[in-house]
Amino acid sequence: MVSITDASQPFKLMKPFEIILTIILIIFIVAPVEIPLSISEWVHSPLGIIILFGLAVYLFLNASIVVAIVFAVSASELIRRCYTVTSTAASMTYSVPHVPSNDESVPTKITMLPSDKSLEEEMIDTRAPIGLNPTVEYVDTSFKPVMDSFTSTATMI
């Protein structure tokens, strides 16, 4: 049976620096600390993830197991908080620029047009004039599209 004194043994073997580090990491996990954007971008880079992983491995090998476990939890919390900061910053950074409405852009469009008619109206007037039909001229040619004799055709009944 494990007694209470055996369970507290990892805490007794911890150095003062490890105790202070554990307390700081626990405060980071519990408190809603906002991460600056520059640190958030650094953590989201591949180098940042590799450094966090390396620190966790180092603490598991050379420090108290309590410090290593608390660091692993705080590192995952850091990555989660940095993801929230980065996604919020990305949504603010890549916003749609202001596009003027039709009411704001109509005066500039009107001043750009030199004539009273739009391009569409000019094209309709030149390509399909209404009421200005020229007289139709018939041309006599020797071309006949229909065959004159029906000698080799079958009768349709």
- H/E element order: HHHHHHHH
How far apart, in Å, are the first and last alpha carbons?
110 Å
Proportion of residues in extended strands? under 5%
Q: How can the largest sheet be summarized? A: none
Mean pLDDT: 76
Give me the count of strands: 0
Outline the low-pLDDT stretches.
none
Shape: elongated
- Work out the helix count: 8
Whole-angstrom Rg:
42 Å
Find the structural class using helix and strand composition.
mainly alpha
Helix content: 55-70%
What does this structure look like?
The chain is mainly alpha-helical and 157 residues long. It has a domain at 10-90. 62% of the residues lie in helices and 0% in strands. Helix 3 runs parallel beside helix 6 and helix 4 (37-44) packs across helix 6. It starts with a helix and ends in a 30-residue tail after the last helix. The mean pLDDT is 76.
Keywords:
about 160 residues; elongated; about 0% strand
